[in-house]
Write a sequence for this structure.
């Protein structure tokens, strides 16, 4: 139970957050406590590194206890969970949340106190069918908000358990998973604020575990991939990567894509195309994108939009096709131009991922690159990257899990995001990403902490002793052993597959 003992300082901070209760209205105290929690995580991680074989049961028990105090918190830092429950209530009533925004007249009989607290009431839901089904279940419970948080927390704990299995496959010390399982950002955003991303993250970790199995299990991986995409659309970008690594790419794509198409077909038919909520999100949403924020300002200063408008004027003169060209002018503004450029970058990253052979490092690298190219980066978006940063103990991304909490300041303290809060978040991250000392072997702890005293030396075949029960033995430990028969080589998140380095 030694791992549980080193989690006690973190648990004390979580209880402190419960006493604060309304986190948004006491933001300075909230951020101070969360900063203390990250210091506690640093201390706990060092102790876990010094343990030869920390108990996986104790690791998971501590993860559970760190989440319990946050379940009663009101969703003051984010009201997304209220939208989840509203969409679930609409679906449970037999109505279509993809076609009917909360402000729709047909939904007036369903309005209650929760409806009055909703934001963006003119926008239909953006969540895929599996999530809406889960929302519908929660909305029928006696205490919907608490019930949903329990469901999301259960999915989060499942992700922690599966991540221990991934660590075993790769020969990574199980204590490394505490960087995710005990991370204050993860516990806050899932147990505290109830974000649905936990469902998708659990499915993604399950995909990677299936791809690392011996023999590989492409059918199970495809099913989990479809579940992840139907919880939130992010995993769709990883389908080509996972299909290539599954050994039977066309079978994987047929199964995963078929399941997603089958579930999404009624949505597309009802919406008569792409759901309008997704269109609104893609065009209108923007917040704290690390590349997006300076890019659109640079395009604005360079006069990109007027230059393109002048180009369209010339096209009209040459072609005399006013009907086709005139509708394009409203889209010539720097924010949308920046999003189009970043979308091209995302497509290039997805294509590049076809060359990556390590399912764990490749998934982390892909999701990390997509996050950096996103126009919108809320704190809970990091949940997609943190499991893989935890296994690599990647300094920059783990530090970002603490720094990203500063993005709550513009939302609740009236301080502009640009430039100082933006620089406070992304400046240190960029420095660590570009200039942090890369680990030279998969088990090196990296520059975030000094090496633990008297690190244990174990034979590779002993790594199966530190795995969570319930996963079959991989046959041999270490990154080299994990690579046999699965096409996996030790790799970081940058550079060639034979090296370790920074995130994509």
């Amino acid at each position: 139970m030694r791992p549980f003992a080193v989690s006690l300082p973190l648990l004390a901070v979580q209880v402190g957050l419960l006493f604060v209760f309304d986190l948004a209205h006491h933001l300075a105290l909230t951020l101070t406590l969360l900063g203390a929690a990250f210091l506690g995580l640093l201390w706990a991680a060092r102790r876990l590194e010094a343990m030869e074989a920390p108990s996986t049961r104790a690791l998971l028990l501590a993860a559970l206890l760190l989440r319990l105090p946050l379940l009663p918190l009101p969703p003051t830092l984010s009201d997304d969970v209220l939208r989840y429950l509203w969409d679930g209530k609409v679906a449970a009533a037999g109505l279509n949340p993809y076609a009917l925004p909360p402000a729709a007249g047909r939904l007036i009989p369903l309005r209650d106190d929760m409806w009055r607290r909703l934001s963006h009431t003119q926008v239909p839901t953006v969540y895929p069918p599996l999530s809406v089904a889960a929302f519908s279940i929660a909305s029928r419970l006696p205490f919907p908000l608490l019930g949903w948080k329990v469901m999301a927390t259960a999915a989060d704990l499942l992700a922690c358990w599966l991540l221990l299995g991934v660590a075993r496959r790769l020969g990574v010390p199980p204590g490394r998973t505490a960087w995710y399982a005990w991370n204050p950002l993860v516990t806050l955003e899932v147990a505290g604020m109830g974000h649905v991303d936990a469902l998708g993250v659990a499915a993604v970790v399950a995909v990677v575990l299936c791809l690392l199995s011996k023999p590989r299990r492409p059918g199970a991986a495809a099913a989990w991939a479809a579940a992840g995409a139907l919880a939130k659309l992010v995993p769709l970008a990883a389908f080509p990567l996972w299909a290539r690594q599954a050994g039977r790419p066309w079978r994987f794509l047929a199964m995963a894509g078929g399941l997603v198409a089958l579930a999404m077909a009624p949505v597309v038919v009802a919406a008569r195309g792409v759901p309008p909520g997704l269109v609104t999100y893609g065009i209108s949403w923007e917040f704290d994108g690390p590349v997006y924020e300076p890019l659109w300002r640079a395009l604005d200063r360079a006069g990109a939009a007027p230059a393109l408008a002048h180009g369209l004027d010339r096209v009209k003169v040459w072609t005399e096709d006013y009907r086709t060209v005139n509708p394009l002018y409203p889209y010539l503004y720097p924010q949308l131009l920046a999003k189009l450029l970043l979308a091209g970058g995302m497509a290039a990253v997805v294509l590049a991922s076809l060359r990556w052979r390590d399912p764990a490092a490749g998934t982390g690298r892909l999701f990390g690159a997509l996050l950096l190219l996103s126009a919108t980066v809320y704190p809970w978006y990091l949940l997609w990257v943190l499991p893989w940063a935890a296994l690599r103990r990647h300094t920059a991304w783990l530090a970002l899990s603490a720094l990203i909490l500063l993005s709550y300041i513009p939302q609740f303290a009236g301080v502009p995001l640009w430039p100082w809060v933006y620089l406070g978040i992304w400046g240190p991250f960029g420095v660590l990403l570009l200039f942090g000392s890369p680990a030279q072997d998969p088990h090196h702890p990296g520059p975030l902490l000094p090496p633990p005293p008297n690190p244990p030396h174990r034979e590779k075949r002993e790594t199966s002793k530190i795995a969570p029960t319930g996963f079959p033995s991989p046959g041999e430990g270490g990154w080299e052993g994990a690579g046999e028969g699965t096409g996996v080589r030790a790799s970081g998140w940058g550079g060639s597959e034979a090296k370790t380095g920074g995130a994509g």
In short: Residues 160 and 181 are 6 Å apart (CA to CA). The chain is about 60% helix and 0% strand. Confidence is low (pLDDT under 50) at residues 439-492, 494-504. The two ends are 37 Å apart (CA to CA).
